[in-house]
Amino acid sequence: MRILTKQDLHDILLGAAIVGTGGGGSLTEGLKLVDKTFDEGYEFKLAETDEIPDEALIGSPYTCGSIGILSDEQQKKYDSLPKIKEAKEVMAVKVLEQYLGNEFYGVIATELGGGNTAAALNVAARLGKPIIDADPAGRSVPCLQHSTLVLNQVPITPMGLANQFGDSMIISSVANDDRAEVLARQTAVASFNSVGVVDHPGYWKDLKNSLIQNTITYCLEIGKTARIANEEGRNFAYDVSEKFDGFVIFEGEIDEADWEDRDGFTYGNLYIKGEDKYQGQDLRIWFQNEYIMSWKNGQVFATVPDSINIYVKDEKLPLINPNAREGMKVTVFVLKAFDQWRTEKAIDIFGPRFFGYDMDYRKIEDIV
């Protein structure tokens, strides 16, 4: 069991935001969350996958929601409601533990991202549990069904849900994981656009072979690489790509950015005009929470399940949606998807066609 320092936590969350491919929640808010918990004296523990008892009960806490803007009337209604003091994800875990009549040994992050990985770290520390060095996504993903647990037919229910007003519920069963996504997303829409969730409760012996392992350590190493590059005045897109088998695919300036909040998701496009060796070229990126599709000079380029990532030169940080602005100077790089996402079954649920694009997935290394 490794005790994490504050620097470890910052490196983990920076790395998670980088591989979060535009989604996964706010890095700024994630850092504030873990800093507050750390400074209050809570201990953050990281459990390696080979030290967890087979009969240990594991769950996956996270935040589900969007960044939709509320009307004045909605804002007034929410402002009048009481607020709970603890994090809604912590409450969701307690509600599900009570329902199951058993306590979780530890938790896994539902995905890698500056916000949701922070949420899992915070829940673990606040409840005296370790975070486990694994997750079911290896990046950030838009929907609950985009999970290696789904690929391996691990039940998502029972699910615990809670919001900041103290409302809580258990979803004991669902028709399928698509329905789980709809129910959680609509609960978020009715909860000031954010709800704490814990799902996929199960024993370690039944979960361990359905997860991508060592991904928290992966984030730690990526974050450390990026931090050192920043400290030494380098563009970390190149350092991360070189060390983690990725590819820089574009340099340029954001020429146009649009987005909308719809059905609990953030959709949008970035249009980037090339600079330096990419002068005269263009890149378009489409996102649904995360960067999903790209077109270089009008031709399909990198797509899910590979992760498209954007480094903002002035800020020396990854670009989180929908914060793009015209005039931003950026470097776009792509990391290979983990092998679990490159099977035919996986591409069916997390390839271009899932998002309405009638085209085959091509591996980034084959494109480049």
Description:
The structure is a single chain. The protein has 368 residues and is of the alpha+beta class. The chain folds into 2 domains: 2-213, CV3147-like fold (3-Layer(aba) Sandwich); 237-367, CV3147-like (Beta Barrel). Helices cover 32% and strands 27% of the residues. It contains 12 helices and 18 strands. The chain has helices at 6-19, 27-39, 72-79, 88-100, 116-126, 148-151, 177-189, 204-207, 215-231, 236-243, 344-350, 364-367, and strands at residues 2-3, 45-47, 57-65, 106-107, 131-132, 134-135, 159-162, 168-171, 194-203, 212-213, 246-262, 265-274, 282-288, 290-296, 299-303, 307-312, 317-318, 329-335. The protein has an 8-stranded antiparallel beta sheet with strand order 15-14-13-12-11-18-16-17. Helix 1 runs antiparallel to helix 2 and helix 9 (215-231) packs antiparallel against helix 10. The protein is globular, with a radius of gyration of 20 Å. The model has no long low-confidence stretch (mean pLDDT 95).
Low-confidence stretches: none
Average per-residue pLDDT, rounded, comes to 95
Gyration radius, to the nearest Å?
Answer: 20 Å
**Helix-strand makeup class:** alpha+beta
- Within CATH, the superfamily of the largest domain carries the name CV3147-like domain
- The total number of structural domains is 2
Overall form: globular
Biggest β-sheet: count, sense, barrel? 8 strands, antiparallel
**CATH fold descriptor of the largest domain:** CV3147-like fold
Strand order of the largest sheet: 15-14-13-12-11-18-16-17
How much of the sequence lies in strands comes to: 25-35%
The CATH class of the largest domain is Alpha Beta
CATH second-level architecture of the largest domain: 3-Layer(aba) Sandwich
From the N-terminal CA to the C-terminal CA, the straight-line distance is 40 Å
- How many strands in all? 18
The total count of helices amounts to 12
- List the quaternary state of the chains: single chain
Portion of residues in helices? 25-40%
SSE pattern: EHHEEHHEHEEHEEHEHEHHEEEEEEEEHH
